[in-house]
Specification:
The complex is a heterodimer of chains A (187) and B (478).
Chain A: E1 6-9, E2 11-13, H1 21-24, H2 44-47, E3 64-66, H3 79-87, E4 91-94, H4 99-107, E5 111-114, H5 117-127, E6 132-135, E7 140-142, E8 148-150, H6 155-163, H7 167-172, H8 175-185
Parallel strand pairs in A: 2-3, 3-4, 4-5
Antiparallel strand pairs in A: 1-6, 6-7, 7-8
Chain B: H1 8-15, E1 17-20, E2 26-29, E3 32-35, H2 41-50, E4 60-63, H3 86-102, E5 106-107, H4 117-124, E6 132-135, E7 149-152, H5 155-164, E8 166-169, E9 173-180, H6 189-200, E10 208-213, H7 215-218, H8 222-230, E11 239-241, H9 246-252, H10 261-272, E12 284-289, E13 296-298, E14 306-308, H11 322-335, E15 350-353, H12 361-371, E16 382-385, H13 390-398, H14 401-408, E17 411-412, E18 433-436, E19 451-454, H15 457-466
Parallel strand pairs in B: 3-4, 3-6, 4-5, 6-7, 9-10, 9-12, 10-11, 15-16, 15-18, 16-17, 18-19
Antiparallel strand pairs in B: 1-2, 2-8, 13-14
The chains are: A alpha/beta (187), B alpha/beta (478).
């Protein structure tokens, strides 16, 4: 996984709450045995709506997505994170995320940024007019219009994002502890 | 000094810590790993690319369920029939090749034990109290019904568990959901969990592990508990736990993968000690009086959009939160409903009885009880009954339930995920309206444009015989 320190660019002001992973990528696209190529199927149902933000040329290739509460709820399908990554999304900003999606996102180099609703509302507004910057080192979301919102992030996940670490390799370095656990418990 | 009282969750957690990270994140040992065809191919590919092996194939069990068509799987001579959709066939072939290459025990697609992973795990005794069980599927929460700390994981985590038999986890907060009293006539475990989701919202349990407590749950069958635990994820919590009790032990005893003889006695003695200690602290507590719960249906596109069957489609402006108002307007537009409409006046054309939420023997019995001696309404275009496993199907057939359904006009199918998720041939067509015992009423979940009303098995049966959302209590006498 590549290291992620600072994300700068346009932010898609989607804004919808309870965005479930079926909406991000429908089950009919889960039959693939690969990770790549899901971006063009992302948000298909939302894209079918006239005047949707995803088809607005201003947001083509935007690296940030802004949504409402409980983003990524429902199915655990990591295909949702793969589809977002394939679209070029590197950060999602929302007032809250589902636990499973938040984990899937960070494992695919996507920062799930939690900000209070009032901050998200202001960024949704700003996103129509200017690019945003998400700084993972400083833990700040900012805009050229003077917005500046500090966020918190699980230190383990933040470090993994900043360093682009291989989680399995990290765990395998604890092989002795895993073996000791198996011996102790007779597993 | 007496030890600090602990919850069931804390006991299971403490018993599985392999090592602690500096920030409190723990590396936990995983006792059981269920694998299915949809969320595993990229994980196996990752192992191959890195030259890694599966650390403990003996703690892993694979079964295909999502893609499998629910039509006949073998010909007259018992030979396996091919799957028409090349992508589905490819994903199944990939699973079969991967389990062979990595030496993972599996249940074949045409084996009598095949079924939905969350039905198969408990049924085989693969799911045991006090274990940590994971699967690349959010409804893994179901296994918490037996006192297993069970949660859905993404494919990267599937790969991580295959390679290391562990997961890094942050400690969750704890939430007690206490329900006391008796569920009313015609009210089931499904109605109760829908009611709870309506009460706390789809993000109400985010960051928490739920423990279900109180005498309503103590009196509930293991099948009912599986339904409740299953939909915990729809309330935002990754796991929902029930303390193992006599009902749990009776359910598990003699299951093929459960311990036997002396090992069984030792296991039960250990499981008895798992219950939450007197005085243990929960970060949040929700209380429900069981008598408040009516047969419940969803009207929108989120499982929190619930109402009693006696109610009406809500007025979006009745919601205080502007975001919720906007969501309700959008949902009603998608669902083709108007505010103020009586829910019992909503006509349905599709019925789905099945899914990991409601496809166990008790669910089929409850539906058959309503269907017995009746016919599905003339307006119903498709009515599916899809048992959760081959063993459930066999049991139902031994009880004659299949004939009750087929004589009423239902299709009696082979086990699988079926019309829950629009991934195999069982779908609801665009603008089709379905009374469904599944778990998600999301936009497009049962097929593009499909309109889903989540209900209990008895309520799905009531909808089938009336052609509309109906109050099951009006069809049977207490």
């Amino acid at each position: 996984m590549k290291a992620l320190k600072r994300i700068h660019g346009r932010a898609i002001p989607f804004g919808r709450r309870n965005v479930d992973t079926d909406l991000i990528i429908a089950a009919s696209h889960l039959k693939t045995v690969r990770r790549a190529g899901l971006g063009r199927h992302a948000f298909a149902a939302a894209r079918a709506e006239r005047g949707n933000v995803f088809d607005d040329p201003a947001f083509a290739g935007a690296p940030i997505l802004i949504a409402g509460e409980n983003f990524g709820c429902g199915s655990s399908r990591e295909h949702a994170a793969w589809a977002l990554a394939d679209m070029g999304i590197e950060a999602v900003i929302a007032p809250s995320f589902s636990d499973i999606f938040a984990g899937n996102a960070f494992r695919n180099g996507i920062a799930a940024i939690v900000l209070p609703r009032h901050a998200v509302d202001r960024l949704l507004d700003a996103a129509w007019r200017c690019p945003l910057t998400v700084d993972l080192e400083e833990m700040i979301v900012s805009s050229p219009l003077g917005h500046r919102f500090v966020f918190a992030m699980d230190p383990f996940r933040r470090r993994c994002l900043l360093e682009g670490c291989d989680e399995i390799a990290l765990t395998l370095s604890h092989e002795e502890a895993i073996r000791a656990y198996e011996e102790r418990t007779g597993t | 000094m007496s030890p600090v009282p602990r919850t069931l969750y804390e006991k299971i957690w403490d018993a599985h810590v392999v090592t602690r990270g500096e920030d409190g994140t723990c590396l936990l040992y995983v006792d059981r790993h269920l694998v299915h065809e949809v969320t595993s191919p990229q994980a196996f590919e990752g192992l191959r690319a890195a030259g890694r092996r599966v650390r403990r194939p003996d703690l892993t069990l694979a079964v295909a369920d999502h893609n499998l068509p629910t039509t006949r799987r073998v010909d007259e001579k018992g030979r396996r029939l091919p799957i028409d959709d090349p992508e589905s066939a490819g994903q199944l072939a990939a699973l079969e090749a991967n389990v062979a290459e990595f030496g993972i025990p599996s249940i074949e697609a045409i084996a009598p034990e095949q079924g939905i992973v969350h039905v198969v795990g408990p049924e085989q005794g693969f799911t045991l109290p006090g274990t940590i069980l994971v699967c690349g599927d959010s409804h893994t929460a179901a296994h918490g019904a037996l006192g297993a700390l069970a949660f859905g994981i993404g494919t990267s985590e599937v790969e991580h568990v295959l390679a290391t038999q562990t997961l890094w986890m942050p400690r969750s907060r704890t939430m007690e959901v206490r329900v006391d009293g008796r569920l009313g006539f015609g009210v089931s475990a499904k109605d109760l969990i829908l009611f709870l989701i309506g009460r706390i919202g789809t993000a109400g349990g985010t960051g928490h592990v739920v423990e279900y407590r109180g005498d309503t749950f103590a009196d509930m069958s293991v099948e009912g508990r599986l339904t409740v635990a299953n939909m915990t994820i729809e309330a935002g919590a990754r796991s929902g736990l029930f303390a193992p009790d006599e009902a749990t032990f009776a359910y598990l005893k003699g299951r093929p993968m459960a311990p036997r003889g002396e090992a069984w006695d030792r296991a039960v003695a250990g499981w008895r000690g798992l219950a939450t200690d007197e005085g243990a602290h929960f970060d949040r507590s929700v209380r429900i009086d069981a008598s408040e719960v009516a047969p419940t249906v969803t009207w929108g596109t989120s499982p929190e959009d619930v109402a009693p069957i006696t109610g009406k489609v809500p007025e979006p402006d009745s919601f205080a939160d502007p975001a919720r108002r906007a969501a309700a307007r959008k949902a009603l537009d998608y669902m083709g409903l108007v505010p103020g409409q009586r829910l019992q006046d909503v006509a349905v054309e599709h019925i789905f009885i099945g899914s990991c939420t409601n496809s166990r023997i008790e669910d089929l019995r409850a539906a058959a009880e309503i269907v017995r001696g009746r016919r599905i309404d003339a307006r119903i275009k498709q009515a599916l009954v899809v048992p959760g496993s081959g063993l459930v199907k066999r049991q139902a057939e031994a009880e004659g339930l299949d004939r009750i359904f087929t004589e009423a006009g239902f299709d009696w199918r082979e086990p699988g995920c079926s019309a829950c998720l629009g991934m195999n041939p069982d779908k609801v067509p665009p603008q089709g309206r379905c009374a469904s015992t599944s778990n998600r009423n999301f936009v497009g979940r049962q097929g593009p444009g499909a309109r889903t009303h989540l209900v209990s098995p008895a309520m799905a049966a009531a909808a089938a015989v009336t052609g509309r959302l109906a109050d099951v209590r009006e069809l049977v006498k207490p």
